Amino acid sequence: MAKIGRFRNATDEAAFLRAYEAVGAEWPVSFTDLDIETSFGTTRVRRSGEAPAIGGTTRESGPAPLMLFPGITGNGMASRGFVEELSKDRVVYTPDIMGWPGRCRQTAPILDQADITHWVVEVLDGLGVERVHLAGVSFGAWMAGVVGAHRSDRLASVIMLEPSGGAFIRPRLSVLWKFLVAGLRPTDERMRKLTEWLTPGLELDENERAMVRAGRKYRFALPWERPLTEDQLRALTAPLLVLFGAATVVNDPEAVARRIRDHIPAADIEVYPGVGHEMPWAIKDKVMQRLLAFATEHDPVRT
After folding, report:
1. Which part of the chain is the AB hydrolase-1 domain (predicted)?
2. Burial of 76 (0-12, 13-18, 19+ CB in 10 A)
3. How high is the mean pLDDT of the chain?
4. Of 125, 140, 218, 257, which has the maximum CB count within 10 A?
5. 62 pLDDT band (50/70/90 cuts)?
6. 165 vs 37 pLDDT, higher one
7. C-alpha distance from residue 92 to each of 65, 80, 85, 87, 89 (Å)
């Protein structure tokens, strides 16, 4: 893992940014792009949606904003398919991830989970957000859990959509082997096979494929996941929603659910039949409705 995330050269970066901008140009709702300064560099965040207003002013007690992290090596543009539904009645922040390909400009390394949390909290501070629903897909779900374990005081809730295989228990060796083989020589064919195995039926458009392909030439600089410890699970006091696809190839939903409930009895866990790791896209309407219902339930400040 590189200490500072970067492209190998300016040509590779330019190719990625062309694809990134092409995907971003198809954003389905109005937005504002923000650059937030942190101890680790500049973070690009896309802000979509507005909170409901009463009497011309935004309600202090209204819906808490939502921040959504993408899956591994993704960026804020990966949330394009979700943002229209999510931003109807609340502000949604979709950040690029420091150390992954995007429009962040990293200046200092993120070495561990404490650094991940520090970075996220500084982004929230820079946005002027005191309290947020923190959601994530796959690896992004693990990141949300990490922040919850360290700073639940800043979170209205933690929402984990098909968390990555090492978020709660050790990942299966067969899963690690699949990623290792593809990562050693990430040809288009190898990555296509990995994607079909991981998220069957998920179709990317031409611009998305170009962005993913160009992003492979980025030197990643974010720590790999490690299962949340018993102490971390106990420290995750924000309301927790975890959604799985029953056919997921990266998780054992029953084993993970048992471990979560052993330490967080109030956790809300649901397993959807007939889908796997592609769950957030395959049954998007159900997942978004479930996410929003949970967020609405926990909008009021905990006392």
Report:
1. 79-281
2. buried
3. 93
4. 140
5. confident
6. 37
7. 6, 11, 10, 6, 9
Model confidence pTM above 0.85 = yes
Residue type, 278: E
Residue 125 vs residues 37, 78, 117, 204, 265: alpha-carbon distances, Å:
10, 23, 12, 34, 31
In DSSP notation, 143-179 reads HHHHHHHHHGGGEEEEEEES--TTSSSPPPHHHHHHH
Distance CA 112, CA 37 (A): 20
Confidence of residue 178 (pLDDT cuts 50, 70, 90): confident
User: Following DSSP, what letter does each residue of 9-71 receive, concatenated?
Assistant: SHHHHHHHHHHHHHHHTT-SS-EEEEEEEETTEEEEEEEE----EETTEE-TTSPPPEEEE-S
Bridge pairing between strands 155-161 and 240-245: parallel
Question: Which CATH number describes the domain made up of 6-49+65-296?
Answer: 3.40.50.1820
Measured distance between the N- and C-terminal CA atoms of the chain, rounded to whole angstroms? 42
Is 50 exceeded by the pLDDT of residue 58? no
Please identify which residue in the block is written with the tokens 């939502």.
Answer: 66
Domains of the chain, by residue range, sit at 6-49+65-296
| 57 pLDDT more than 80 | no
Cα separation, 269 vs 243, in Å, equals 6
What CA–CA distance (Å, rounded) separates 145 from 159? Answer: 8
